[in-house]
């Protein structure tokens, strides 16, 4: 079985395994490396990692389904995460998320029709005092009300249009 990983990713995987006294201990780092390269962790990827680490495939599947940072399907080029935990919800994160949904014509967990954006409603983004909190790719945005969500969405759309 083989998956289409870049040669440098394969080298990083082999190197990562050497840092652990038991191969199976490298499962999380390998999942991160595969997702970084492919954009998600497919069923084939999980089976490949399991074979590489000489563990049952279910052991890798359990990790992917337990940890929310792992994605099992491709996402848009831009990833918008809106916090839904209590402090952000009380500050209006549900309205913030709806604003992004409306602007990009998509729902949480789905890719927008143009393939540009995936919106995700997530658990805590660790900035509870400044909600609603939104993370766009790796950039944290605090106090994102509906108006600010609209501004961010317009900026993302303009950047996408400029690339085309």
What features would you describe in this structure?
The chain is of the alpha+beta class and 164 residues long. It has 2 domains: 7-66; 78-163, Glutaredoxin, CATH 3.40.30.10. Helices cover 49% and strands 11% of the residues. The chain is built from 7 helices and 4 strands, in the order ααααβααβββα. The chain has helices at residues 7-17, 27-38, 43-53, 57-66, 86-91, 93-104, 146-163; strands at 78-83, 117-122, 134-136, 139-141. Strands 2-1-3-4 form a 4-stranded mixed β-sheet, covered by helices on one side. The longest helix is centred in the last third of the chain and has 18 residues, at 146-163. The radius of gyration is 18 Å and the shape is elongated. The termini are far apart.
């Amino acid at each position: 079985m083989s998956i289409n990983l870049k040669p440098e990713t394969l080298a990083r995987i082999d190197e990562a395994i050497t840092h652990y006294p038991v191969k199976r201990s490298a499962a999380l780092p390998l999942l991160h490396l595969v997702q970084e390269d492919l954009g998600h962790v497919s069923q084939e990827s999980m089976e490949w990692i399991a074979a590489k680490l000489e563990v049952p495939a279910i052991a890798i599947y359990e990790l992917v389904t337990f940890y929310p940072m792992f994605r099992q399907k491709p996402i848009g080029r831009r990833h918008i995460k809106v916090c839904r935990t209590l402090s952000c919800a009380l500050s209006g994160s549900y309205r913030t998320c709806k604003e992004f949904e409306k602007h990009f014509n998509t729902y949480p967990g789905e890719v927008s029709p143009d393939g540009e954006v995936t919106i995700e409603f997530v658990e805590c983004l660790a900035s509870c005092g400044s909600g609603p909190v939104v993370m766009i790719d790796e950039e944290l945005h605090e106090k994102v009300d509906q108006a600010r969500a609209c501004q961010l969405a317009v900026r993302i759309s303009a950047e996408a249009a400029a690339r085309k």
